[in-house]
Amino acid sequence: MERRDFLQAMLAASGASLAAGNLFAQDKYPSKPITWICPYAAGGSADNRARQMAKVMGIALGQPIIIDNKSGAGGNIGTEFIAKARADGYTLGMGNFAPLAVNHALFKKLNFNPLTDIVPIMLIEKGPLILTVRNDSPFKTVKDIVTAAKASPGKLSYGSGGIGGTHHLSGALFESAAGIDMIHAPYKSGSAAATDLLGGQVQMMFEQMYVAMPGVQSGRMRAIAITSKARNPLLPNLPTMGESGYPAVEVLNWQGLVGPKGLSPDLVKLLNATANKALLDKDLSEKILGQGNELGGGTPEQFAALIKAEMPRWAKIVKDAKIEPE
């Protein structure tokens, strides 16, 4: 079943078309604007998606949803703000992969518990990464890279936007799965790492698909493999890391709608139904799919299960990469 058909079927089954209209008729929720906390800076991918979702959901709910960017500490500051907000439905937020699944292993202390202080409402999307090299690189396949890395341990390098980020952890996971030793070159940003990749200072980089696509399409970069389980329709000839022999290197950077602990089941139900309906919006879904991302959707329980499964997985990857918590 196609994802869009699944979302439509689920909405019909739950009576979501009625939920937004009368589930909270008595309490008249929402009766004022809603704040959506984004734990990253304005202009980034999380911020853009939050604004797109907020626009569609705000129309459906009959109240504006205002984005409030609270960035810093790898997403921890904004996520803590969500966790400690009043559970009245007027403060929601973007729940991201790093603060909900990885940062508990990267920081000695978090001021929130992703499993108990955050209420998952709906997964919005998942985004794969692409293993990229420069267009004149001798590497054309994952096998080429592994062969070269084993022949010269500690010689090849991969760039990242910083220690503990998705770029870094994808590279560390690749090293572990392939049994190779490479140099990790952390930069202050992913764009700085990509610049040095093009300049030849590093040999490869795992980059978010939507960021890598312009370089790949222009011919400046060569795509070697993608970290999703299945091939991506935007690059149908690009093999997955699994097809290349390393199924463990499956990495999807995800984000979804969350709220603070104590949010009532009725509010969660309404917001989940509204968010699922938003993903059926043609303009919004085209923006998500057009970046090579997978549409989310589904139930709060499914989103909660994803977070619960991802936390121990990434804790092990961080430990194996010998990253010391800050």
What this model shows, in words?
With 326 residues, the protein is an alpha/beta fold. It folds into 2 domains: 194 residues, D-Maltodextrin-Binding Protein, domain 2 (3-Layer(aba) Sandwich), CATH 3.40.190.150; 99 residues, 3-Layer(aba) Sandwich (D-Maltodextrin-Binding Protein, domain 2), CATH 3.40.190. The chain has 12 helices and 10 strands. Strands 1, 2, 3, 4, 5, 6, 7, 8, 9 and 10 form a 10-stranded mixed beta sheet that branches. Helix 2 crosses helix 10, helix 3 packs across helix 10 and helix 5 packs parallel to helix 12. The longest helix is centred in the last third of the chain and has 21 residues. It is globular and about 70 Å long. About 4% of the residues have low confidence.
Question: Short description, anyone?
Answer:
43% of the residues lie in helices and 19% in strands. By secondary structure, it is α/β, with parallel strands linked by helices.
SSE layout and pairings?
Layout lengths: L2 H12 L1 H7 L11 E5 L6 H17 L3 E5 L6 H8 L7 E6 H10 L11 E17 L7 H10 L5 E4 L5 H13 L4 E4 L3 H10 L4 E5 H10 L2 E6 L25 E9 L4 H14 L3 H9 L3 E2 L4 H21 L6
Parallel strand pairs: 1-2, 1-3, 5-6, 5-7
Antiparallel strand pairs: 3-9, 4-7, 4-8, 4-9, 4-10
Helix pairs in contact: 2-10, 3-10, 5-12
